[in-house]
Amino acid sequence: MDKLQLIATAPMGLEAVVARELLELGYTDQKVENGRVIFTGGLADICRANLWLRTSDRVLIKMAEFPARTFEELFEGTKAVNWPDWIPEDAEFPVEGRSHKSQLTSVPACQSIVKKAIVEKMKSVYGTEWFHEDNGQRYVIEVWLLNDIAMLTLDTTGPGLHKRGYRKLVTEAPLKETMAAAMVLLSRWRPERPLYDPFCGSGTIPIEAAMIGWNIAPGLRRTFNSEGWSIIPEELWEHAREEAFDSVKDNVPLHITGSDIDPRALEIAEAAVKKAGFAKEIKLQQMAVSRLKPEGDYGCIVTNPPYGARLGDEDEAEKAIRQLGLSSLYIPTWSMFALTQSRTFEDTIGRKADKKRKLFNGRIECTYYQYFGPLPPRNKTDSPSKS
């Protein structure tokens, strides 16, 4: 089990960020594809990847890949996999599916064929005609059909990796934790620099920044489907968690603040910050963006400005963005990074971005506008450089 093909799924536009995360974790043997990064690892790496990946949606095991133009090919290709090596006799093993540009267009039919093939394989090993699927351990299988090629995967994560465990309540249009982490990573912020979110909503960006600053594995506060799998020894999970706990750098000073004009949002943010363990490190306050005056120099504004539905009024949203542009003029050493649905953001804020990147928050297409300010000088004789 040392040469498994693992898949870290990625929101569209974040494949390179997920690949960089994997590289920093030591996974050099990888292949970047649309919506995923395939890498090589063993059972222990299932544990490490689930605990550490900040911007991936989930970690899958690639079980098989084969041509499937007919239901017979799909059935035989599925049956050829040694499913009993992974799935116990009394486990629950639902099948999910999707199909794109393939002759097998009926997803329910494909799911049914895959389920039947797995059952037939397991019957031949366990010697039973019926599987009760009632022991509580889940092995979610997915069949992906693309251009008449079927890929079978086994989900090791369960609920998506964005569910860190610190956020119970959400605002009307929540920013996913994985996207917030990606925004911070793409900003090239470092813990020694201030970070400020003037539209902090439920506090996700400040919390994700704090977790990055202290090198806290985002999966430490939750469990995963594969933690109950008999094929993964319990000591592998224990070792991975011990490694993660030992890697925490909670002695690093943080300068992270957030504000929002909505008192309800601040209430939710304060609860999340407290649950995440950063009540003393993250400063929150109710404040309009017109009063924006972050402390310190060479900081980063990382934010998801309100737009349309988030304020209930597009005119109010544009007014807030325009005010952000005016306020940013008074902090010339700061960099600014904003994720928004607005297609007129640059005109509204009054500045062309240095760089733009198309990203998806869930299924919502957004643009990440990046305005690079000077980096902090390395010493008093250095002149600042841009980033």
Automatic annotation (TrEMBL):
InterPro entries: DNA_methylase_N6_adenine_CS, RlmKL-like_Mtase, RlmKL-like_Mtase_CS, RlmL_1st, SAM-dependent_MTases_sf, THUMP_dom. Residues 58-156 form the THUMP domain. Keywords: Methyltransferase, Transferase. Pfam families: RlmL_1st (PF22020), THUMP (PF02926), UPF0020 (PF01170). The keyword Methyltransferase applies. GO terms for molecular function: methyltransferase activity. One of its GO terms (biological process) is methylation. The keyword Methyltransferase applies. PANTHER family: RIBOSOMAL RNA LARGE SUBUNIT METHYLTRANSFERASE K/L, RIBOSOMAL RNA LARGE SUBUNIT METHYLTRANSFERASE K_L. This is Class I SAM-dependent RNA methyltransferase. It comes from Paenibacillus lignilyticus.
